[in-house]
Amino acid sequence: MDRPFAIDRRSLVAGAAVLVASSPGSSAQTQDRPMIDARTALIVVDVQNDFCPGGRLAVPRGDEVVAVVNAIGTRFANVVLTQDWHPAGHKSFASSHPGKKPFELVDMPYGPQVLWPDHCIWNSEGAAFHPALALPHAQTIVRKGYRPEVDSYSGFLEADRRTPTGLGGYLKERAITRAVVVGLATDFCVGWTAQDAAKAGLETFVVEEACRAIDLNGSLAKAWTDMAAAGVKRIKVADLPA
Questions:
Q1: Is the pLDDT of residue 70 over 90?
Q2: For residues 185 and 51, is the Cβ–Cβ distance under 8 A?
Q3: Considering the entire predicted model, what is its pTM?
Q4: How far is the C-alpha of 191 from the C-alpha of 153, rounded, in Å?
Q5: Is 46 a catalytic residue?
Q6: Which residues are registered as beta bridge partners of 235?
């Protein structure tokens, strides 16, 4: 694997924040606590090598979520993993746009697109789940971003906001009514997934300590604000039933 791309998160183009969908605000946003039962699913978002330190699109301290996710994962009978899964030459990669650099914005048929370093290329080490992630009872892996022409942050809908991944239908058939979302990164894939879960009618929670963020140009605060507006509830590990 090539040496990870060096990312100065704070100096990224301001326009990139338009695509953000998750971040921390005030932790006293909700007192609600989820029930963990047969109708509750833990959705673990993109805990993959390329999003952890040493990866091509590393989230700062992203590997710290692994132990937290493992610890709380044992409490859930229903566990779903999402996995960024791009073909080489994906249109969201800066390398697919001559003269463009990572984190620049381009217009795609579905709207503005942040260009990323090549990452999570299918069957690569970077696309694999973090080796310490231990959720053997997870029943489903939802792969996203595998269509060459469209990116996908959310585990429910691709970036065109029309193409479903199938996760919504899966959860509906399993009679799931409640989702607890964790993983990487709070202000992108976690945030978009949580908002879409809430829009799909699921009672949705995001566990603060089980997520890490990129946090560029205020994206983290904006993400938490957007999630709250969508009805997503922000909780701590201590708010989960033992």
A1: yes
A2: yes
A3: 0.87
A4: 9
A5: yes
A6: 207
Number of domains in the chain: 1
To the query of whether residue 189 is one of the catalytic residues in this protein, the response is yes
Residue 102 lies in a domain: no
DSSP-derived letter for residue 54 is: T
Q: Which one, of 144, 140, 120, lies nearest residue 50 by Cα?
A: 120
Is residue 144 flagged as an active site residue?
yes
Return the number of other C-beta atoms located less than 10 Å from residue 70's C-beta: 17
Q: For residues 188 and 21, is the Cβ–Cβ distance under 8 A?
A: yes
**What is the C-alpha to C-alpha distance for residues 98 and 118, in angstroms, rounded to an integer?**
14
Options 52, 120, 189, 211, the catalytic residue? 189
Set 91, 144, 222, 233: catalytic member: 144
Q: Rounded to whole angstroms, how far apart are CA atoms 37 and 183? A: 21
Contact by Cβ (8 Å): 85, 142: no
CATH of the domain at 197: 3.40.50.850
Is pLDDT at 84 greater than 60 in this prediction?
yes
Output the six-digit token pair for 101.
Answer: 């650099």
Which has the closest alpha carbon to 65: 229, 209, 176?
Answer: 209
Reported as a pLDDT band with limits 50, 70 and 90, residue 34 is: very high
Q: In whole angstroms, what is the distance from residue 133 CA to residue 42 CA?
A: 14
Q: Given a cut of 90, is residue 7 above it in pLDDT?
A: no
By residue range, what is the domain housing residue 206? 19-86+120-239
Beta strands 111-114 and 78-84, pairing class: unpaired
Amino acid (one-letter) located at 46: D
Angle at which helices 219-229 and 191-199 pack, to 10 degrees? 10
Residue 93: inside a domain: no
